[in-house]
# Entry
Amino acid sequence: ELDPYNRFYARQSRWRLEAEFVRDNALAISGLLTPKIGGPSAKPYQPSDYYKELNFPKRTYTPDRGEEQYRRGLYTHWQRTFLHPGLLAFDAPTREECTAERNISNTPLQALALLNDPTYVEAARVFAEHILEQGGASFDQRLRWAFLRALNREPQAQEAATMKDLFDHQLAAFKAEPAAAKQLAQVGYAAAPETIDSGELAAWTTVGRTLLNLHEAIVRY
# Structure
């Protein structure tokens, strides 16, 4: 109210992370991000027929495995006219022409990408593994650890209650459908630990996907 145009803001205005950093942030929160510098381009997840429309020569898309899969977005393979969808959704330029300034959009497609792209599902699942292994014994302790890790703050009372309802609902659903829990654990190349109950892991993965989709997780403050 005192400063509606942020003219006297102490730091900076809130700004959505650039496309490359949205993915980097999710990988960093999960612990999957590879710090390797330099080297050939990396190919994040996409279907093998992603390049089926390309000719001269015909080619298939083969996602990288190992640490190459989790390299920074800066190193993503850039195919002219076939920009990686994860970058395109968050307004990365196609490089078909000079772009002096990137546009910043806010579309439902971005939320869908954060919820369903294999990169973010896998990141949420590995994040969930760390929550269960390092977050403590109780739900409240684990949720607090997850919030601090992802958002650098503790959950508010209403947020904790909402997350508890979400967790309980998802846990019951995955306990009733163990095959669905196992299927979720198989997304991505990172192996799921066999020592963690698949239903509980899947429920916490849902919590992790929710946190990674929050405004605070993709915006600079």
